[in-house]
Write a structure and sequence with these properties.
Chain lengths: 80, 118
C-alpha cells in the first residue's frame, strides 16, 4: 500500500520536501515505516531521535497503518 | 484574573541574541498545527486536573522572530501562588517536550534546527 508521510523541521530538509510517499506492505506497522524511511533517508539515523504521529497522535512502533491515516514524522521538538 | 484568584504566574519566553556564545540573528518557528493544538489542549487539561487552576493561557507564535521578540507566553491564575508557580512551570516544561513545534536558529554563518542532533 502507499502512505503519504508529512515532514516538519529538519525532516523536511532530509526528505527535500514537506511530504513523501512510501510503499508499505498491507497492514504495515510504524516500525516498518521507520525502516523504509531510514533505508531511503539514512540521515534520519543521525537524529537524536524522532517520533511518528498517526492522525495527530504519537504512535507506538507496533501501530498498524492504513492508506487513510494522516502520518507525520516528528523530529525532536523545540518549541517554547 | 478572577475575584477568587490570589496569584497570577506569567512566563514570557523571549528570543535571545546568542546561543553558547554564538550570535543569533533570528529564530524561525514551524508547527504541525493540528497536532500542536491537540497536544497543547492535553497539557491544559492536565494542568487543570493537577492544580486548582482558575484561568490558563498558552500562547505560541510561529514564523520568523527577531531577537527580543516573544514566541511563547504562559499565564496561570490560582487562588494561591504555589499552585500558580507549579502549574506554570509544568505547562512550559511539558510544552517543550511534547508539542510538535520546531525552532531553527539562524546564525551569521549558518542555521541549526534546535535539539535535532546529539
Amino acid at each position: 500500500m502507499k502512505v503519504n508521510v508529512l515532514a516538519f523541521g529538519i525532516a523536511k530538509d532530509i526528505f527535500g520536501g514537506s511530504s513523501v510517499e512510501i510503499e508499505l506492505p498491507e497492514n504495515g506497522t510504524t516500525q516498518n515505516l521507520k525502516q523504509s524511511l531510514e533505508d531511503r533517508y539514512p540521515r534520519l539515523r543521525h537524529l537524536v531521535s524522532y517520533m511518528v504521529a498517526v492522525n495527530n497522535e504519537y504512535a507506538s512502533d507496533e501501530g498498524l497503518l492504513t492508506e487513510r491515516d494522516e502520518i507525520a514524522i516528528i523530529p525532536p521538538v523545540s518549541g517554547g | 484574573m478572577t475575584p477568587q484568584s490570589g496569584g497570577i504566574d506569567i512566563f514570557i519566553g523571549t528570543v535571545r541574541d546568542n546561543t553558547k556564545g554564538k550570535t543569533v540573528i533570528r529564530l524561525e518557528f514551524e508547527a504541525y498545527e493540528p497536532m500542536a493544538i491537540k497536544e497543547i489542549q492535553k497539557i491544559a487539561d492536565e494542568a487543570f486536573n493537577k492544580w486548582p487552576v482558575q484561568k490558563l493561557l498558552i500562547h505560541h507564535r510561529v514564523g520568523v522572530l527577531e531577537v527580543g521578540e516573544i514566541p511563547v507566553i504562559i499565564t496561570v491564575s490560582c487562588a494561591h501562588r504555589d499552585a500558580a508557580f507549579e502549574a506554570c512551570r509544568y505547562v512550559i516544561d511539558t510544552l517543550k517536550q511534547t508539542v510538535p513545534i520546531w525552532k531553527k536558529e539562524i546564525f551569521e554563518d549558518g542555521e541549526v534546527w534546535v535539539a535535532a542532533h546529539p
